[in-house]
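User: Structure please.
Assistant: Input sequence and predicted structure:
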Amino acid sequence: MTRLNRFILLFLAIGGIAAAQAPLPVPARVATGFNAIREDVLRADLTFLASPALDGRMSLQKGDTVALEWVASEFAKAGLKPAAEGGFLQSVPLVEFQPDRAESSLALDRAGQHKPWAFPHISGGFKDDVDVTAPLLFAGYGITAPELGYDDYATLDAKGKIVLVFDHEPQEADASSIFNGTGNTRYATARVKVLNAQAHGAVAVLMVSEPNRQHPSAQELGPKIGGSALRPGGRALQSLDENDIRISSVVISDVVAQELLATAGATPSALQAAIDQKLQPQSRPLANTVVTVHLRNSMRRRGISYNVCGLLEGSDPQLAPETILISGHHDHEGAFGGPETYPGADDNGSGTVGVVALAHAFARNETRPKRSILFTVFTAEERGLLGAFWMAAHPLRPLATTRAMINFDMIGRNEEETAQTRGVLEVPADTTNRLNLIGAFYSPDYDALVAAENRQVGLVLDHRFDHEAALNIFFRSDQFPFVLKNIPAFWWFTGFHPDYHHVTDTAEKINYVKMAKILKLAYLSAWRFGDDPTTPRFVESPRGH
């Protein structure tokens, strides 16, 4: 073979690879909306949302009210149908409160000895002042999972007791664990643990990081999550005024847990090892152990914020009652201690602008999906997914016929190593074209559909966050309340970066090329969710995928 022939074959081979990787053409019937997603519009909208005039968009503050009213006006301009309470705004009643660290404590009474602890050995807050004294029980990981044959409460009578539980899940370093291998399931989150304790009659929960953990504790991780975590005295907290959770929870240090468990008959490390080895609960009463939880707030006020909700009605009378949910959150961290604000361009100006862009894209398209699309921008995500939990408890359309959810939270940057991910999660060398999808183990069908549509866009899709448990990523955005309701719901996320929750998260740092590609992929995926004869299945028990 001559050198020229070799060159020709190499050229053809390279051309074939390039052709195979080139995006496929977009079907003509969806092209108008697809082409309406433009980088210059995204940049203009995000520059406004992240501007100093909006003062960091903290829920219950004026800047966030401006943001949510802007979203409502954009939904109206797009021609969406008001979906909430006669308009675009769903009321979310909140309580804002400031825990008083100096006046809050946890105390142990045992054998005539009284020992109190305060911050930083204990931390937490509750919307009401709390005074609870009760016997203490050890309840393992605090999990009741009947479909997995595991129940930490099987041998306990927790009624009227305070329970101490480990954070996270059993066997989280075991790739073959029934608890989703090395990732998290729904049972690992504090909310589910507290609700489970409450259902078993407990009056308070004490939570400690697992003694044999291979990751930072909750108390170690907190200060690594952005500049807002370093506010003097801690930041004000918010809660739903009408909340499913009616008992308080307190995070305790290893030192406190070791002393509380002194009468358990085994060390905390040994208790965890015994559970993890054979998935056999080690729950037990703790002899002569009475605990008092004393929580006080220095400030408390009620307020109303709003989820912004607009509906694009489906084109098929038979399928229009079914819903596809596209969401983000409009709030951020506000301002404190001077003139500087937290702009929140990526978190989550990018997601808010993304939902608005898709509302316009679908509305401009000549045809509509068969199923309806509910566009929602939630409030108070930064305060604990409060707007999303409110809607999940007070849905505007039936959850039983909600077929899929696309949730945008931080879709504008290139992922980089940060203080919270360093040594915990490997960040790929090149993230300029990479999108993280979180939640695939609960709906492989959803994941396969997005991957198929990505042939028309060409992003690199990444599932690393489904296979790590250290950072609790799975629980940290607004898709999670809907996962708890068995809805296929993914968090679309471009990853953390050094500006996350800092005053430097500004609009000029956004990768608008990638952001537009992500929105185009979401547009195509939502079309498929809206039109396909079958919809994604929800897998209630991933069992170590």
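Residues 43 and 512 are 7 Å apart (CA to CA).
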